[in-house]
Structures are given as structure tokens and as C-alpha cells.
Amino acid sequence: MLDGLRENLGSALKKVLKSSTVDKELIDELAKDVQRALIQSDVNVRLILEVTKRLKERALDEDLPPGFSRKNHIVKILHDELAGLLGGDSEFEFQSGKQNKVLLLGIQGSGKTTMASKLSRLLTRQGYKVGVVGADTYRPGALVQLRTMCEKAGVEVYGEEKNDDAVAVVGNGLRHFERQPLDIILIDTAGRHKQEQELLDEMSRIGAVASPDMAMLVIDGTIGQQCFGQAEAFHKAIPVGGIIITKMDSSAKGGGALAAAAATGAHVMYIGTGERIDDLEKFSSSGFVGRLLGIGDVQAILEHFKRIEEESDEVRMKRIMGGKMNMEDYFYQLEEFTKSGSMRGMLENLPGFSGAGPDQLDKVDKLEENIEKWRYIMQSMTPAEKADPDLIKNASRTQRIARGSGMPDSEVKNLLKTYKTSKNMMKAAKGRAMRDMLKRMGIG
Ligand SMILES: Nc1nc2c(ncn2[C@@H]2O[C@H](COP(=O)(O)OP(=O)(O)OP(=O)(O)O)[C@@H](O)[C@H]2O)c(=O)[nH]1
Ligand SMILES: [Mg+2]
In Å, what is the CA distance from 226 to each residue of 54, 190, 192, 221, 338? Predict the structure, then answer.
């Protein structure tokens, strides 16, 4: 399915790139080609019309970024609109201080059990405490498979070998974990050959007992056209909050992401890229659409846009100087500072610094050591936390980040404190000194 979409969008864009003039006629033709391609891929008609309406509006009127032709810009607009259709990049924000329940749904063989173990491993590494409930009472051996796989992630699996009432097992499992200090409980469920009524009913009943914070629909990326119907049927039984597409490593190149996202309005959050426990990636809508439009010429144009879009140092420095630094910026500064090799060596060789005393040099060594630790800590922070570290107010978030990074709580606090001090200093120095320096560097 995806290959067809790829071909059709590709040839539509090729027409644009080959034509000698860009006019309304050409854009209308492109819009028609895009509509046809998306309709064939079962994307919701209303969404298609929105995409092509915006494409037409933007294609001829928008100002061109410096150095880009109208044709290149059209490629970029189509890319952005399609990525928008997939809902942009998103991640489930787990709430701290409670047990977040995530229900994994999907038909037989879609990859739920494998995904339960992959997520267990990933989330544990991010510092969350995870428990798993095995509620597949349908397929013999399901619980053993789940246990074996989750063992690799070191998480506890609750299951009942002799109970064939999945709804009861879920209730018992949640009670079993109730008193444990868990952040996330993953519930693995049964599948059937199709989205049969019996399966959908069981999912609604499990939903009623578990009241999950998120129902994640697991879809086999190789099934093509059926994606839309499957996603829609599950979504009716229990509102789907996130989508996982598995088997993206196979030749199908991940069909169904667009269709499933369109059918439920939910975002694709993760993709499975193999059978092993670490074969899991966060989904990026822009990367996906990039691959979708990935004919040679187009790829080069998109890469060019990406380069100019990647925030230039200039913009970042201006934000930092304006007192609006976030954790990413802070870390970026520290990294830049250490990039040029050992700071100690650098300082010792700096003419004005040759007189630096042992005290100062020790401080520099200490900072280098801290940066190493802080790198791990930052990796355990969610994007939202990095954008706004003030979110890390309560102890449970601090502890989660500490666990994920293998650092003590005190080190997380240390980073937050140092960050705050630097930010305040920047704010205070917002004026003179730094600005002068930037001017001298030619970027003020
Ligand atoms: N290549 C590849 N294989 C996968 C991926 N995810 C799962 N599989 C394989 O797909 C098969 C089914 O995976 P399961 O995790 O058992 O699927 P399930 O949804 O739990 O299936 P049921 O329990 O029968 O409903 C297994 O052979 C997995 O190894 C993936 O991302 N890539
Ligand atoms: Mg299973």
C-alpha cells in the first residue's frame, strides 16, 4: 500500500519539478494528483481536502525562503502538510505520582506481546517503574511468551495460568500491583484473526475495568489496506489514544501509518523495527513523510530545508541571551564549551589564563565531570521537561529521572540548581557584557 502511495506522490512531484513554469494550473493538477494518491490509500476524504486546500493556498502566495525556488518550496509544503496529517511528533506524557495504565490492543500477530516487552525495556531505561499484566487468556502459551520476553527487561509480569476470564485477570492484576510504587502498568491482551466482535467486546469490557490512561493500538505495518478498518473498529470499541506500527523493518516499508492515524485521529507514537527487544523507535512523522516522498530529487530538497531549519546558533544564542534559555540550550552551551577538547588544557594554554591557580583548574575538572553525569540525566528527561525544567517540581519526577539515569536524586537536583543559577545570571546580564561579546563575534 505504501509503495503505491510513494509512487503516486513521487510522480506527482516529478511533474512539478519538470515543468517550466509554476502557475495555478500546475498547482491544481498537483492537488488532484495528491488527492487521488491519498484516496487510494484510504485516507479520510475530509482530511485530504484540507491538505490540498492548504497546499493550493500556500503554494503560490507564500514568501520564499532565501535561496529556494517556488518548485522546491512546493515540495516542502506538501511534506509539511502530510506530516501534519499524521499529527506531528508526539509522546505519551506519563503523569507522575500515579500508576499510568496502558492497554495494548490489536489483532493476532500484530506484535502486542513483543511490544509489551520492548516498551518495558525502553520505559525502564527512562527511569519509570513498570509492571505488566498478561491478559491474553485466549492463546495457549501466551503468558509464558510474555514472561520470557519481559524477563529481559527485568519487569514483573502478573498473570493467571488457569483463569480464562481476561477481564477478571486485568482486575486482579491491577489490584496486585496497586500497592507497588509503579509508574506504568502495561496490559497485554489477546488477539483474533480479524477485528471480530468477540474480541472488540472483550476489549470494551477490559477498558471498563481498567479505565486505561491510554489505549495503544498495535498494527502490523505489512497488512496494507486493512489498516483503516482495523483502526476504526478498535477505536469504536475503546477510544484509541496512540498507535504503534510494527514490522517496519519488513519490505512493506510501514504501510498503514497514515490510514490508521487518519481513522482514529490518534498519533503514531512508536514503530517496531525487528523481533528483538531493542528494535523499537520513536516515530517521527517528518521522517516518515520524508521517506514517503523519498525520490532522489525530492530528498535533496527536503534535506536542504532541514539544514536551514535546524536552529542556527545565532537564534539559539539570542534566546539564551534573552533570558529564555531552556535545558536543551543549557546543555548545548556546556557541550560547546567542552567540544574543543579538555577544558583544563584549553585554559592552561590560553595566554591570559596561564596564571590560573589550582583551585580554578579543579573547578574546571569538576564541571567536566558533572557534564558527563548531566548528559545521562538529560537523556532521562522527557522533551517537555527539557523545554520547561520547572515541571520537575515534585519528588517523584526527580526520582524517576534519577532512576533512569542511574544517578542519585541529589545529582538531579544539583543539575537543576546549576541550571537555574546560570539562567538567572543570563537574565541579569541580559544587557551589556554578553551583547558586547556577541557583537564582537559578529552575531549580536
Ligand atoms: N520483523 C518483525 N517482527 C516482529 C515485530 N514485532 C513483532 N514481530 C513478530 O511478529 C510475531 C507476532 O508477535 P507477537 O508479539 O506475538 O504478536 P501478538 O500481537 O502478541 O500476537 P497474539 O498474542 O497472537 O495476539 C512474532 O513472531 C514476533 O517476533 C517487528 O517489529 N518486526
Ligand atoms: Mg500476544
Answer: 28, 19, 15, 10, 52
Q: Are residues 361 and 248 located together in one domain of the fold?
A: no
What's the pLDDT at 290? 77
Q: What type of residue sits at position 247?
A: K
Q: Is the CB of 112 under 6 A from ligand 1?
A: yes
Supply the residue whose CA is at minimum distance from atom 13 of ligand 1. 111
Ligand 1 closest atom vs CA 274:
32
H/E stretch holding 13: helix 2-18
For residue 217, how far is its CA from the centre of ligand 1 (angstroms)?
Answer: 14
The DSSP 8-state label assigned to residue 163 in this structure reads -
CB of 246 closer than 6 A to ligand 1? yes
Q: Are strands 280-282 and 267-272 parallel, antiparallel or unpaired?
A: antiparallel
Residue 273 CA, closest ligand 1 atom number = 31
Evaluate if residue 198 carries a pLDDT over 60.
yes
CA-CA distance, 409 to 244, in Å (whole number)? Answer: 33
Q: Is the pLDDT of residue 367 over 90?
A: no
pTM exceeds cut of 0.85: no
Looking at the fold, whether 71 and 121 belong to one and the same domain comes out as no
User: What is the spatial distance between Cα 99 and Cα 174, in angstroms, rounded to a whole number?
Assistant: 10
Nearest Cα residue to atom 21 of ligand 1: 109
Query: What CATH number did the domain enclosing 69 receive?
Result: 1.20.120.140
276 plus 131 within the same structural domain: yes
Q: How far is the CA of 101 from the centre of ligand 2 (A)?
A: 18
| Pairwise CA distance, residues 304 & 301, whole Å | 5
Same domain assignment for residues 158 and 267: yes
pLDDT band at 444 (very low <50, low <70, confident <90, very high): very low
Closest ligand to C-alpha of residue 139 is 1
The pLDDT tens digits of the residues spanning 201-230 come to 999 999 999 999 999 999 988 876 677 788
Answer whether 134 contacts ligand 1 (Cβ < 6 A): no
